[in-house]
Amino acid sequence: MKIKKTEIVPTYAEAFAMWGGRAIITADGRRWALTAARSMTGFATSVIGCPCEAAIEREVPAAQTPDGRPGVSVLLFTVREKDIRKRLMERIGQCVMTCPTTACFNGLESEQTVSVGGALRYFGDGHQVSKVLNGRRLWRIPVLDGEFLVDDLFGVRETVGGGNLFIMGASAAATLRAALAACDAMAEVGDVFLPFPGGTRSGSKIGSKYKGLVASTNDAYCPSLRGAGVETQLPESINAVYEIVINGLTEAAVREAMRVGMVAAAEKGALIISAGNYGGNLGRYKLDLEDILGGAGEDGA
User: Fold this and answer.
1) In terms of DSSP H, where are the helices of 41-116?
2) Which residues 6+ apart lie within 8 Å of 132 measured at CB?
3) Are 41 and 55 in contact (CB under 8 A)?
4) CA dist list (Å): 37 to 33, 47, 103, 112
5) Which residues pair with 157 in a beta bridge?
6) Burial letters for 42-75: b for 16+ Cβ neighbours within 10 Å, e otherwise?
7) Does the pTM exceed 0.90?
8) What value does the mean pLDDT take over residues 147-167?
9) In DSSP terms, which residues pair with 147 in a beta bridge?
10) β-pair partners for 167
């Protein structure tokens, strides 16, 4: 299958279940809302070595935030259900509450919730005050520039992690242009985020020759290892590969992001687009590239 001159490899991306939540950070100005969001999403690129995966989903206009101030939406995912509360609590407590003028609200409606503000309130050392607004409980925690307002409960749900695309091209510069076009297109899709810095590079396989290492470089897709005894997956025309990992609240959202990403990368001259899978050993979602290009797919989350 081809999009323009770009070959689409008949394969699938293997994705897996995660747990996720969404925080809406607001502040007196866009600068502080973004500062807190960037801090909250630091060191959250891959669960291979980070405690969670997180990224800014989008900026939220003041007219759409709970307190009428400029906002930023952050998505945060963990592998295990039992970890999601801890990661939300520590990152909102350490990265948002510590930033000037901020407040933090739940951004995900879900039947399942975890207590975040209810735990952070103890920082008020007995001076915290609860407030019920439109049926939701918030906590007002005194801080030195006023008070930090935070929702008591945050919604959490099972999500999808590890959707991916391999963008391949003749040179690193040309391939990066195609990959970034894909990232920009995906950023317009709601309910997803790209956890890697700038959205792309990555490139790892499960396991290693070294005991105890859970992941290592995906040598089959390293152009520099072609001819070095590695069973390469790359034709001679390919000299660079950029992987894009896509996490989403639903399978449908991940599929749609992959679809627009493939189209955008093809328009920017990607030679080949493929995806990573591990024989069904990683996760239960099989996101077939050709099937995705034939339709957005159904929500299987």
Assistant:
1) 84-91
2) 138
3) yes
4) 6, 19, 11, 24
5) 20
6) eebbbbeeeebbbbbbeebeeeebbeebbbbbbb
7) yes
8) 98
9) 142
10) 242, 273
